[in-house]
Automatic annotation (TrEMBL):
Annotated protein name in UniProt: DMT family transporter
Location in or out of the cell: Membrane
GO CC annotation, single: membrane
Organism: Halosolutus amylolyticus
Alphabetical UniProt keywords: Membrane, Transmembrane, Transmembrane helix
Topology within the bilayer: Multi-pass membrane protein
Record's keyword annotation contains Transmembrane helix: yes
Length: 306
């Protein structure tokens, strides 16, 4: 039992970190937005089924639809449409590092949109480091700013902003609907939006599955979508939002390792430096909560959400 929580924490990081190379394999042959839509068609059923089996309330009440709609549009549809599109142009490690700015962006947007919050000077520096780290990862060439990789980083960063905004909006409308049910309904809302965006972009709606893309889809639905979310919900209840957010900073490690082993993706020095800058930014934004977490231990961490 002493090592159970750290082991589960690492398992979630490994499962979700390896989704980046899996998505990169899939979107090389499957239209990216359509692929995201098909994924959440299936994952929504798994997550809601998990909530029902656990005996949790599945049916939303009238006042809970605002949060579901906000999460479905921003957390599921916009985030994954931009993320999957961006992963056509960047390596798995680069995408994972840019996504690691989500907790920083969430803190910044929550201070801007939620009452009675203030980022402060140190927090503002941390937010700035998040932007700086992303710029370092992009590593733009002044002579050729409009490269495919720069465009990919911008798409993934826009995906991170969409996720952060969705997190803040759902926080403002949070009700008593269990987390698994909330996530499942967000997916049920987001998947049709993704299908609509796919059609509007003119993506082909017939998919010729290659063996690699089929394996990636199977991994992303029952493993990353089913098992990954199940473990995440369990850890969220046990650890709280601050400590579970730290899993974001292990994703680039697993993404880089698997991307290198499976896809022969190179790891640029700018990616490592950018990741370090983003991690420092997160530590500054969440410095008080992290200090209390270290002082009090994980048993009280669920109370520390700032």
């Amino acid at each position: 039992m002493r090592y159970r929580l750290p082991a589960l924490f690492l398992l979630v990081a490994a499962i979700w970190g390896t989704t980046f190379p899996a998505v990169r394999v899939a979107v090389a042959v499957v239209p990216p937005v359509l692929f995201a839509a098909l994924r959440f068609d299936a994952v929504a059923i798994l997550v809601l089924g998990y909530a029902a089996v656990r005996g949790q309330r599945v049916r939303p009440r009238r006042g809970e639809w605002a949060g579901i709609l906000a999460g479905g549009v921003f957390l599921i549809a916009m985030h994954h449409a931009l993320l999957f599109a961006g992963q056509q142009y960047v390596t798995s490690a680069v995408a994972a590092v840019v996504v690691a700015t989500v907790p920083i962006l969430t803190a910044g947007l929550s201070r801007a949109l939620l009452p009675n919050t203030g980022l402060g000077v140190v927090g503002a520096i941390g937010l700035g480091l998040g932007f700086l780290g992303t710029a370092i990862v992009a590593d733009p060439d002044p002579a050729a700013l409009y490269t495919a990789e720069t465009f990919g980083v911008l798409l993934v960063f826009a995906a991170a902003i969409a996720f952060a905004l969705g997190t803040v909006l759902t926080q403002r409308t949070r009700t008593g609907l269990p987390v698994a049910s909330l996530q499942g309904w967000m997916m049920l809302v987001g998947a049709p939006v993704l299908h609509g965006v796919s059609v509007s972009l003119g993506e082909p709606q017939s998919v010729e599955w290659t063996p690699a893309a089929a394996v990636a889809f199977v991994y992303l639905v029952p493993v990353a979508g089913g098992l990954g979310y199940l473990l995440y919900f369990d850890l969220l209840d046990r650890l709280g939002s601050v400590e579970i957010n730290l899993v974001t900073y292990l994703l680039p490690v697993f993404a880089a390792i698997v991307g290198w082993l499976a896809l022969r993706e190179a790891l640029a020095a700018s990616t490592i430096v950018g990741f370090a800058v983003v991690a420092v930014g997160f530590a500054l934004v969440k410095r008080r909560a992290l200090a209390r977490l270290v002082a009090r231990g994980p048993q009280t961490s669920r109370k520390l959400d700032r």
